[in-house]
Amino acid sequence: MVRLQAFPRLSGEWFHILLAIGLILAAGVVEARGPGNATPASVKGGQTPETKAGSVQFEQQAAALPSPSSGAELARRIEELTVRSGDTLMNLLVKASVPRQDAHEAIVALRDVYDPRSLRPGQMLQVVFEEDTDVNATAGERLAELMLEPDFRRNVVVRRQPEGGYVVDEVEKVITSRMVVSEGRIQTSLFVDTTRQDVPVPIVLELIRAYSFDVDFQRDLQPDDRFRAMYEELADEDGRKVGAGKLLHARLILSGKEYSIYRYATADGVVDYYDANGRSVRKTLLRTPVDGARISSRFGKRHHPVLGYTRMHRGLDFAAPTGTPIYAAGNGVIDYAGRNGNYGIYVRIRHNSEYETAYAHMRSLGKGIRRGGRVEQGEIIGYVGTTGLSTGPHLHYEVHLNGNKVNPLTVRFPAGRVLAGAELKRFKQAAGAIDARYVAISGTTRQASAEACAAPVC
Predict the structure, then answer these.
(1) Between the CA of residue 428 and those of 144, 241, 253, 277, 423, what are the distances in Å?
(2) Which of 201, 342, 393, 420 has a CB 3.0–4.6 Å from the CB of 389, allowing a cystine?
(3) H helix or E strand, kind and range, residue 447
(4) 417 Cβ neighbours under 8 A, 6+ residues apart
(5) DSSP one-letter string for 148-185
(6) SS3 for 121?
């Protein structure tokens, strides 16, 4: 592929000088650089300090994309764009001086492989311009290529065809995986101490969700409790870490008691986490339907912060930043979604003939959340807010058992699937293979870490 470089706009004097040199040397394109031609960081395409490092990697990735099909060697320049909050692809391109018709046609082509609405703040794109040689067009530039990286697994390029119009190509990256084991003490919180050991955040969140059916992460964790996580680490062909795959196995040691889980796919294709005896960790309902929140008010009598007198608080309050996602505690049908007096924006879900859950003070409802709709456990139903009778952003969470509001921390939720027979035997073999793999991976580092770890569970 021809290496794409930015070229500065030339003054009339420089243009005639270069044109004369070009005619004499019969050269195609002469590239001019100089202090007076540098693009300032504030101009479109300039690099601010925070994007410069990402730009180098993006250019290297772009070099692997298909080259333009045009045989003509036209003057080309490249601009790098960074998506900001509220940007759409159309307004981003138009602000970068891409002709509106070109932007529209390129976006239509892109939709075959990528939804432009999926752009996220901080994402980087590259736009390649070339001279517009159409004799019927006013002097200027046209969009030659649009390049972006939807995720770490692929690059996408939209190219202008010689005869007009745009086509889209995808380049799948070569991604390799290896198993990684991370373990250590829990001294601050599970989230803080695992991420300090470079466990990827998606793996940490998966671990927390898997254990959230049985563990109260505020009350059950004690100093020097321990964790273990065995997961896939993904790398590109240059060996750079680009993401995380599956969490295969985890273990918590809480007050001396061991809680081990294994990722396992049953014969019918359902993937879940099971304890060492083949019992699914998944229960009918989640105890904590919001990630990373602290309990700010428990179930029971309390002095009401707004009303100023003592009354029964029939739920749990989870303090969390505004906009934090709220998850459905279990599968069910929504029987209320909307404003509900002092509860503010409120959702109630009927899970079965015995259990309902309720969620109050939301900032807004999740997409598609409406009365009569079905939801699955873990689906986003709304976002933390402070609507209704509330002094700050939090989720008020209730569990109703046979019409009575009960303490979500003490109620015993029905257990999930329990493996038996041939399925249990198959699971035991899979768990044994994971254990053996853990020993093989960690064996080379266990001796080195023994001095720092006196507990036998290391």
Answers:
(1) 57, 32, 21, 8, 9
(2) 342
(3) helix 421-449
(4) 266, 272, 279, 280, 282
(5) EEEETTEEEEEEE-TTSSEEEEEEE---EEEEEEEEEE
(6) coil
Q: Chain-centre distance of CA 139, in angstroms?
A: 43
Q: Which residue has the tokens 């609405």?
A: 117
Q: What is the pLDDT of residue 21?
A: 45
- Residue 358 β-bridge partners: 348, 398
Structure tokens at 196: 């300090």
The pLDDT value given to residue 397: 94
- How many Å apart are CA 458 and CA 15, to the nearest integer? 71
The span from the CA of 129 to the CA of 132, in Å, is 9
Per-residue model confidence (pLDDT) at position 171: 85
Can you give the pLDDT at residue 11?
42
Two structure tokens written together for 70: 């045009």
In angstroms, the CA 244 to CA 235 distance is 9
* Predicted local confidence at residue 19, as pLDDT: 44
The pLDDT, as a whole number, for residue 205 is 86
Indicate the pairing of strand 355-365 with strand 76-82.
Answer: unpaired
- Distance CA(96)–CA(88), nearest Å, equals 12
Cα–Cα distance measured from residue 133 to residue 135, given in angstroms and rounded to the nearest whole number: 6
User: How high is the pLDDT of residue 450?
Assistant: 33
Distance CA 125, CA 160 (A): 16
132: tokens are 């517009």
Do the Cβ atoms of 364 and 381 come closer than 8 Å? no
Cα distance between the two ends of the chain: 52
In 3D space, the residue among 174, 233, 225, 226 whose CA is nearest the CA of residue 198 turns out to be: 233
Output the CA torsion sign for 258, 262, 266, 272: positive
For each successive 10 residues of the chain (458 residues), what is the average pLDDT?
Answer: 38 44 41 36 35 46 47 72 89 90 91 88 89 61 88 87 88 86 87 87 88 74 87 86 90 89 92 92 82 77 59 85 91 93 94 90 94 90 93 92 88 82 95 92 51 34
